[in-house]
User: Which sequence fits this backbone?
């Protein structure tokens, strides 16, 4: 069969590549054309557009690049018409993919969505459009199934693809040998994951760095985002000579860490799946935060707490994100055995919940092929 897969971000490229690998195991003569990145191309997809040419974050950036976005939409539609796929498989990236889904359904293409947009957090009105334009929705968070049920829309829960990514990383950990001068050779490491966007790093990293002064017996290591320059981090870190950094080595860092300070987002879930105690940190501009408070309809900001529906990890949000609070919460993680034991048990329950029924990519691929055959 012929598959046209669209992913618009680095995470989508990762999960898309695993999906392609699994599709090819089941459908050995599959022809796959895709928007994504190097990983999807290496898995056997014919790459049409790279996600680095698609990622426009924030309202102003979207407005400034509106012409490019509209041009990409037109190109994508024409490319789908030429390719004539048996199925269009969309991976997250809702701003672009929901527009393509609506168009594709009207043109008679079967539309499958893998990794639902986070409509449960805000813009619930998008569910109506999803019901009308998506033939099959495959969700990766357990509460999403119940959420869509309230809208009379049956979806399939396949588990979270990060579980298998972390499993693979753990399995290969024994063959990872850091260079002799690598900070990863240190002991008593605290990982700092300050995010990947310049604005969020500028807000949070200085507070995390200042908190590190309270822990002279621990080595703090910053995971640099591949999208940000060394010079940018250099300016923020110059007053903290004891704090070191790594790039493209976040998983190795987590596997060696005793605890972590993590910016809210997917990184909180990755950290939990590696079993690392964490403090979740979030701070934005006051205007953005006030707007988000009124629009977003969720109890927690970390995926760990959202999935478990209770406060498994401490969230320091906006005005609560202070050096004193970071120090207090991190100190608990490093020295309070009872708190550590509770978090470890909760992490185990989280892993079990997200790996329900096997590997997400394999389940998603099987579901896609069966759907098309039937």
Assistant:
């Amino acid at each position: 069969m012929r598959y046209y897969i669209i992913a618009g971000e680095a995470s989508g490229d990762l999960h898309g590549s695993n999906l392609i690998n699994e599709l090819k195991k089941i459908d050995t003569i599959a022809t796959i054309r895709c928007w994504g990145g190097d990983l999807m191309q290496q898995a056997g997809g014919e790459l049409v557009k790279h996600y680095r040419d698609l990622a426009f974050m924030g309202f102003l950036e979207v407005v400034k690049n509106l012409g490019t976005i509209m041009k990409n939409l037109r190109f994508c539609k024409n490319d789908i018409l030429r390719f004539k796929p048996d199925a269009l498989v969309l991976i997250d990236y809702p701003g672009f993919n929901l527009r393509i889904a609506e168009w594709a359904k009207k043109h008679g293409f079967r539309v499958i969505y893998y990794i639902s947009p986070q409509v449960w957090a805000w813009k619930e009105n998008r569910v109506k459009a999803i019901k009308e334009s998506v033939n099959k929705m495959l969700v990766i968070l357990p509460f999403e199934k119940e959420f869509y049920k309230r809208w009379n829309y049956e979806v399939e829960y396949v588990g979270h693809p990060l579980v298998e990514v972390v499993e693979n990383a753990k399995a290969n950990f024994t063959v990872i040998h850091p260079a002799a001068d690598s900070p990863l050779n240190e002991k008593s490491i605290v990982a700092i994951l300050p995010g990947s966007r310049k604005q969020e790093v500028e807000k949070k990293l200085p507070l995390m760095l200042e908190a590190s002064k309270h822990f002279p017996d621990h080595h703090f290591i910053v995971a640099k985002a591949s999208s940000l320059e060394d010079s940018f981090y250099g300016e923020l870190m110059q007053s903290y000579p004891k704090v070191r950094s790594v790039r493209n080595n976040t998983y190795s860092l987590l596997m060696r860490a005793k605890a972590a300070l993590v910016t809210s987002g997917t990184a909180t879930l990755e950290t939990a799946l590696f079993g690392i105690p964490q403090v979740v940190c979030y701070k934005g501009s006051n205007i953005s935060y006030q707007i988000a408070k009124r629009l977003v309809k969720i109890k927690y900001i970390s995926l760990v707490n959202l999935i478990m529906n209770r406060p498994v990890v401490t969230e320091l949000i906006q005005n609560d994100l202070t050096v004193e609070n970071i120090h207090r919460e991190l100190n608990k993680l490093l020295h309070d055995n009872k708190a550590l034991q509770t978090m470890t048990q909760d992490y185990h329950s989280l892993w079990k919940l997200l790996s329900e029924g096997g590997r997400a990519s394999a389940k998603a691929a099987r579901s896609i092929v069966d759907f098309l055959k039937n």
About this structure: Residues 167-354 form a domain with the Rossmann fold fold (CATH 3.40.50.2000).
